[in-house]
């Protein structure tokens, strides 16, 4: 048996950007709201991302502004992306 795969690199690149944004958002949430913030899920596609998380109280407007500011600052840095495979426990640390 053989399999042929065709990758839509345009779509993949857009999905990758939104996937990276989930990591930035998680960083910002934990920076502002504390390390007890826990990601519960996410949806990432080429046009949007959704990030589900738990927190022990509603997010205040000023906290939301700070989270947005951190995300925007991180995106503006345009850092190179590096990755490596790690065990889940190591990634969560």
Fold and architecture overview:
- This protein is of the alpha+beta class and 93 residues long.
- Helices cover 51% and strands 14% of the residues.
- The chain contains 3 helices and 2 strands, in the order αββαα.
- It has helices spanning 9-33, 61-77, 88-92, and strands at 38-44, 49-54.
- Strands 1-2 form a two-stranded antiparallel sheet.
- A hairpin with a 4-residue loop joins strand 1 and strand 2 (49-54).
- Helix 1 (9-33) crosses helix 2.
- The mean pLDDT is 93.
Briefly, what is this?
The chain has 93 residues and is α+β, with helices and mostly antiparallel strands. It has helices spanning 9-33, 61-77, 88-92, and strands spanning 38-44, 49-54.
Secondary structure layout plus pairing:
Elements: H1 9-33, E1 38-44, E2 49-54, H2 61-77, H3 88-92
Antiparallel strand pairs: 1-2
How many strands, what sense, and barrel or not for the largest sheet? Answer: 2 strands, antiparallel
Sheet/helix structural class: alpha+beta
Q: What spatial order of strands do you see in the largest sheet?
A: 1-2
Give the number of helices. 3
Order of helices and strands: HEEHH
List low-confidence stretches: none
Q: Report the β-strand fraction as a percent range.
A: 5-15%
Q: Give the strand tally.
A: 2
| Radius of gyration from the alpha-carbon trace, in angstroms | 16 Å
What general form does the structure show? globular
Give the % helix: 40-55%
For the terminal residues, how far apart are their CA atoms? Answer: 42 Å
Can you give the mean pLDDT? 93
